[in-house]
Recover the amino acids of this structure.
């Protein structure tokens, strides 16, 4: 009986030591979890900050894009006006060329008529 009591006491002591080891491991695990939770919170915060920065940058880029679209529309409008003016000038130049040809032909015919009239 005394030996059983001794064995039970020994087993109890071993179990207490195991319990202390498990408590120590649990405390270490809790500490790791706490550190990881802190790191996770920090990472989430950085992600939110990055998302906010990207959102702001995207908004700025969209504004710049809209400005550029407006500038392009203005340039296209000016180009259209200049193209119309160029077409009008080309028509005027064609008319002037034809008029010059008719006048040149008239002068040539007049000169030839005078030459034949003299002879």
């Amino acid at each position: 009986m005394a030996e059983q009591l001794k064995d039970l006491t020994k087993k109890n002591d071993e179990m207490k030591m195991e319990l202390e080891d498990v408590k120590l491991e649990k405390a270490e695990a809790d500490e790791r979890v706490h550190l990881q939770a802190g790191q996770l919170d920090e990472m989430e915060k950085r992600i939110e900050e990055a998302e906010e920065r990207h959102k702001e940058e995207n908004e700025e880029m969209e504004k710049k894009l809209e400005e550029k679209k407006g500038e392009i529309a203005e340039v296209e409008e000016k180009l259209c006006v200049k193209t119309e003016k160029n077409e009008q000038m080309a028509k005027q130049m064609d008319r002037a060329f034809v008029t010059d040809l008719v006048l040149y032909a008239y002068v040539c015919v007049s000169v030839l008529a005078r030459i034949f009239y003299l002879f």
